[in-house]
Design a protein that fits this description.
Helices cover 15% and strands 29% of the residues. The chain is of the alpha+beta class. The chain starts with a strand and ends with a helix. The chain has one domain (2-40). The chain binds zinc ion (ZN).
């Protein structure tokens, strides 16, 4: 089960069980973003 980008809904490479410390493009308080959305913010 992969976590999805909170903005566009695309699947990210990260499992829901992956700790946020080990993810890229994670925004605390918002959630997981994909690379594209993260770079737009
Ligand atoms: Zn996105």
């Amino acid at each position: 089960m992969k976590d999805k980008c909170v903005l566009c809904g695309v699947e990210t490479p990260y499992d829901k069980t992956t700790h946020i410390d080990y993810r890229l493009h994670y925004v605390e308080g918002a959630g997981q973003l994909c690379k594209e959305c993260y770079e737009k913010e």
